[in-house]
Amino acid sequence: MSLKKIAEMVNVSPSTVSRVLNNKSSTCASKEVKDKIFEAARKIGYHPNENARNLRTLTSETKPKLHVSIVLARIQTLKADPFFYELFRELEIALFKNNITIDHVIYSKETFDENISESNGVILLGRCSQKLFSRITAANKNVVAIWRNSMDFKVDEVVCDGEKAAELAMNHLISLGHRNIAYIGDCSYENRYVGYCHSLIEHNIPINYEWIKQTNQTGESGRAAFYELIEHSEGFSAVFCANDITAISVLDVLHKERRKIKDKISVISIDNIEESQDTSPFLTTINIPRKEMAHMAVTLLMDRINKNHSEIVRIEFPCRIINRNSCFPV
Question: What is the longest distance spanned by two Cα atoms in the chain?
């Protein structure tokens, strides 16, 4: 099946389909159009190297396509979390490029009806419970996990340490002279919160628990938490948000309440989702390398399926700061 077939199904040009499936530009199509293109590509079993094989006039005896299942352990829909949405898209692209089809996409739940034992392997996205992990590994032995922090599970994993990302964000604020730094995000079993506290302790800065707001890391809960901060607390000059979607809501509140909030408040977060480039001011954030993590997860899974390694492998990617202009010196 060709790019032209997908283009006809979605009613866009083949060049747009190519740019989306090869991730050439984040602005080449709307989110809605991208979703339709990926859905169509999955439906027809499209693979970008299919046409190349035909051009080389190879015989019809090609390697059987691999089939994998994807489990999104932390969310019930891709629309719920932009970070996992973008990570899932990078994973789809990496799978397409390696001639791998997706059998099942399973969302957050302890039990599921899909038969993942028929898949060649499973990719697990996001932190999960021991119960869910045991269920997955009982059904399929070829499992690779992508998550922000290493888990104490016997599984190949691709990670980008959330605690280190938080410390990088906090050190940036502290280098700008900030000592009164609020935190908005998950405080339970969350390495980013650990990194926040550890950075304050390391720099001999007292922890002010009035400036710490527990949320479920959605935009709505982040907005409510920040309103609570500005109405009932004072003295903080910066806010470290556990993820971009929270920080975007904070920046929106700062804009709406700019007449009431006279002092500049710096905002920094983690993830570097596409939307972080469209805020006002542009959001300073810590980049989590989704494309590289997706590529390495697929590579690891193919290697395990082909029985080229048996020991547990852990690959950690470094994070880096994307310094825009939402942070100011004190």
Answer: 72
